[in-house]
Amino acid sequence: MTSQERTTAYQFMLRTVDGPSGQTTVRTLELAGEIDASNAEELDHALGEHAGSIPLILDLSAAEFFDSAGFAVLDRRLAGGGLLVVISSDSLIRRAASLINVPFHDSVNDALAAIADG
Amino acid sequence: MPLERKGQQEDCYFTYCYSPIRDEDQAVGGVLVTVFETTERVLSERRMRCLQELAEARADVTSVSEVLSRAGEILGRYASEVPFACLHRVDEAGTVVDSAYVGLAQPVAASAWPIQESIERREPIVVAALPAVVSDAGSSEHRPTSAIVLPVVGSSQSDGGAVLVCGLNPRRVFDSGYRSFLDLVGENLAAGLASASTREQERQRAEALAALDRAKTAFLTNVSHEFRTPLTLMLAPLEDVIAGARHDPELVARLESVSLNGKRLLRLVNSLLDFTRVEAGQSEPQLQTVDVGALTAQIASSFAEVCERAGIVLRLECDSVPGAIDMEMWETIVLNLVSNAFKFTVQGEITVSVARPDPEQIVVTVSDTGTGIAKEDLPRLSERFYRAPNVSGRSVEGSGIGLALVRSLVELQGGNLQIESQLGAGTAVTIRLPAHLSSVSATATDRPAGWRSYTDNPYVSEAFQWLRGEDDDQRAAGADRPADRPLVLVADDNADMRRYLDRALRPRWNVVAFGDGRSALEAARNLMPDLIVTDVMMPTLDGFALVEAIRSDPKLATLPVIMLSARAGVESAGDGFAAGSDDYLVKPFSSQDLINRIEARLQSVARGRLSAEQHALAAERSTALVELSARLSAVASVPDLLAELLASPVASRGASMAALATLEPDRAHVRAYFAGEIHSEFADRYHTLALDAPVPGVEVIRTNQPMVIRDTRNLEQRYAVVVSDATPAIRAALIEPLRRPDGEAVGGLTLAWPTPQQFSEEEIALAEQVAHMVTLTLQRIEVAEHEHNIAAALQERLLDLDVSSSAAVISALYQPAREVLRVGGDWYTATALDQGSRLAISVGDVVGNGLEGATVMSQLRSALGAAALARTDPSAVLELLERYATRVSGAACATVAYAVIDSDAGSVEYACAGHPYPLLLTADGTVSYLEEGRRVPLASSCPRPGGATGRSDLGPGSVLLLYTDGLIERRGESLDAGLNRLASAAADCALLPVSEVCSALLARMAPENGYTDDVALVAVRPAAATAQSFIQSVPAQKTEIAPLRGRLRAWLRSVGMSLQSEHDVLLAVGEAVNNAMEHGSDFDWRRSVSLEVFADGSRISATVGDRGHWKGDSAASRRASSRGHGLTVIHGLSKDVQTVRTLLGTRVTMTFESSQ
What we know:
The structure holds 2 protein chains of 2 kinds.
Chain A: E1 2-7, E2 12-21, E3 24-35, H1 40-50, E4 56-59, E5 63-66, H2 68-80, E6 83-86, H3 94-100, H4 108-117
Parallel strand pairs in A: 3-4, 3-5, 4-6
Antiparallel strand pairs in A: 1-2, 2-3
Helix pairs in contact in A: 1-2
Chain B: E1 2-5, E2 8-11, E3 14-22, E4 28-37, H1 39-58, H2 64-76, E5 85-90, E6 96-102, H3 115-121, E7 125-127, E8 146-152, E9 161-168, H4 176-244, H5 249-279, E10 288-291, H6 292-300, H7 304-310, E11 312-318, E12 322-325, H8 327-343, E13 348-358, E14 361-368, H9 402-412, E15 416-422, E16 426-434, H10 458-478, E17 487-491, H11 495-505, E18 510-514, H12 517-527, E19 531-535, H13 543-552, E20 561-565, H14 570-578, E21 583-586, H15 591-632, H16 638-647, H17 649-652, E22 657-663, E23 669-676, H18 680-685, E24 688-690, H19 696-703, E25 707-709, H20 720-726, E26 732-739, E27 745-753, H21 761-798, E28 808-815, E29 826-832, E30 838-845, H22 850-870, H23 874-885, E31 895-902, E32 907-913, E33 919-921, E34 927-929, E35 934-935, E36 950-953, E37 959-963, H24 975-986, H25 994-1005, E38 1015-1022, E39 1024-1025, E40 1029-1035, H26 1038-1055, H27 1059-1080, E41 1088-1096, E42 1099-1106, H28 1116-1119, H29 1125-1133, E43 1136-1142, E44 1145-1153
Parallel strand pairs in B: 11-13, 17-18, 17-19, 19-20, 20-21, 32-35
Antiparallel strand pairs in B: 1-2, 3-4, 5-6, 5-9, 7-8, 8-9, 10-12, 13-14, 14-16, 15-16, 22-23, 22-27, 23-24, 25-26, 26-27, 28-38, 29-30, 30-31, 31-32, 32-36, 33-34, 33-37, 37-38, 39-40, 40-41, 41-42, 42-44, 43-44
């Protein structure tokens, strides 16, 4: 399992965790910090870099702030497929995500199970 | 005397006057001949005479050819005017049908003249080249060389026309006098022809009528003959059938009815035949001398039984009188008279008397006590076919030839007939016959062949028939009827017809039948039938009168009436309808036809009842619409308009939401207003939309077509987004375009319901009506708003507010005085000073207003701005301004308040030149006035040195308010009282955003009838964070978003709340700030976005303000990839969201309930 951290100019950080999951290789990104109109494009860009042949899990549970600009990025990326969003039940942004109807999983394990189920 | 004038020979007339001229010796030395030309007078007299003769001749002509010949005669006497003349009459095809010639030796062919051309053009044509035949016309000197062809066209000359060709006297100038003379001759002839042809037509018509009359008699004779044989052939076997059907009484009854009516028909035919024979002179009486008295008594007595049955006394007072009569004719006479008497006598007596009052004559009288005949009808009574109108009797059946026949028969036998009658008292018919002295050669017992007895005659049978009918009616009126069926009332004087109708209608309806109009009317009033079937001809009251009576009776007026009549033809039907009957059936008709029509009538009445209810409903609705219209005429704003619509049951039809979309001036966007039950997120999201947005309320504007949405779920896929956004508030909607007078759609009105609706056509039509009213109201509001916008634009232009300051949150208001819209003399300014934390604000008031006041105001304002940059001390700034003001005419006594706020230092420095004290409202709600730094008004007559600059602390969260005296001044109130009112009004504004402080104070301080003076207000709250408030103002830049969030998070932490609550506030406020920067400010760094957050216990309220005008489609992001989640978050996370949009910007206030 390799791990890599990437910190943007300010406000958010993506931690990449790669690991085998059953037969499928999955990449998990853990986001920390804040996403708003000022850095949503950077998030989009970062997700674009990770998008590929293997499924991507974006864990937003630790995000302190994630606004509509961020959710708009998720909408686009989710529509493209190959992305699963995880927002844990105790996440600050869960209420907003529910309002917006973003499809998410409660935990990375749930997301992995969903991938395994196809 | 012929004279040559103007190169033309001319007959002239002169009067010569010879006067002697005497010389000195009184001898006649010469003669003075005075010559007067009298040509004109002579000619006009002669022409007048000619015309007069023509007019006289016209009076008694009877034929067209006579007109021509008489005119020829007269014209011939005036050869000097008309040397020759030809008169040609042509028919429609242009062929000459009649000609007359004057002054010509031989006729000229009509083809020599342009006859047709003249008639068609309706104007005279002068013919210069005359045919040779004319060469000998007139005397040698007056031989015409030209002629005029005059059209003779009268107004009634529909069949072709005529021309008058007149030769022109060559020795007469063809001047206007000559010309108009000839025109008049032509007109005269036209009139003559017209009256002659009218007379001819009249004569022809009279002749045609006489011929027609003869033809009718011949026809009747033939027809009667033709009828009699088959009738006889039918009746004889019928008797056999009746005899053989004794076992079936029902069948016998029916067949007897056939038999009776057949016999009646036969009698009518016989009467007709008799009559026509008499008319045609074919009847020769076979006179026999008989005992007239005995014969008459015997014939009359055949009515004894029927009279007895009817309760009428038949009195026979017949002396034995011999007379020469035709027995058969006599029988007809007596039977007719007695039958008539019986028919019109309902009670009383009938007297038949025969007497010989003198040897010369026999007098036979049949008198009764019946209804009598009106005087005016008497003379016509024995005219054939004449029947006196409105006679009340047993029946009005009959051909109307009875009396005429009697009269003819009496006259054939050398007698005469006389009728005396008095309406209501009775009638007496008297026959006088010449008496014959010879002895009786025949006995009265010699009956005419063919009749078994007199009692077996059809007259008596018919009389029985009338009686039977009356009995039936009495029975029918009392008959039992099922209660739940419609009641049909039948009025017909023919008993058979009544029975027939009763049998035909009884299976379906209850039926009552009456034999005359009056009893039918009475019964109708008592029984209130559902429909009346009436005959036209009836005793006492005929069908027309019955209908009229029904229509004029308010209780019966709507009762459907069907008329039956034997009088065929469209005209009769017209009479029926004109009298007010609903339908009209001509006998003979099939019972099915009648049933169908009754059915149709009853159904239409049922429908009518329904539609009457609907009508009442419609009337109620239109009243409500009028009321609504009145209320709409009072509304001043779109929200008020929508509120009125929703409040009006007729307009809203229970709609829970009303929305109005109006086309923006750019014609590419639409602004929407919502009222009623709609989630605020929807209202915020859809407040401004692109014209091509897939939103029904917008599409009606684009398509100019209404939309009826009975269920939003059935809408097409392209509306999916708006449908989902609108759910659950909207499930059904009626959307009407709002059209300008030229038909262009400039808006849309939406009425919406939270549940699916079944809209009726009526409701849809109603919505259209309401839309029309809304359009009118909207136009009015727009005009008013346009004026308001002008004021606001002036305010923006003249009173500028630095919107970039981040030192404080600033809000200003300018309220023009109520009465007039004008540029005022008030101003306010807010200017950021060199150091970022310092802000200068001012409010000033120039004496006077209008353009002059505005000019002065503008000069002072600019000077103040310059002074503020030149000096830091407010007092010094005003000193500079004072020096400038003394040079500006009109600036005298202007007042100004000037303050510099240092948000870092939390202080304010100020000076006031004759201006009301600035107001300081601290965060804890303490109100104080800043009373230092006083100066006299600018450019005043007695300048005094100004005091020192005033200084005061400006604690965090405090608001500094500058205002003009218009806010506090009231007539009859001291200034202190006004200040006190303002102080108490401001006391509870401490936790309001500054924009709301301004509007709240303006509203609370308003006099009852509105401000009489302009009011300017500036409220400033320095950026700060206190225990209760967090005040920020930041440039509209993306990079400001995160730092602002950081500061807000810190403040929220200090207030103390859960992480989740903190996050939710941060997120909702962040979205609102983002919107304000993006939509309200276009991310323009020169504009600022303000944030004022207040904590009041666990309640957090946050107001985000921008100073821009939201543009574009606020819901577009919803449909785009970004999906516009901002508003969803704002509305989802906050407890309440209030959005206030004004021309000066938008402010969104969110309220949160925080958990600790």
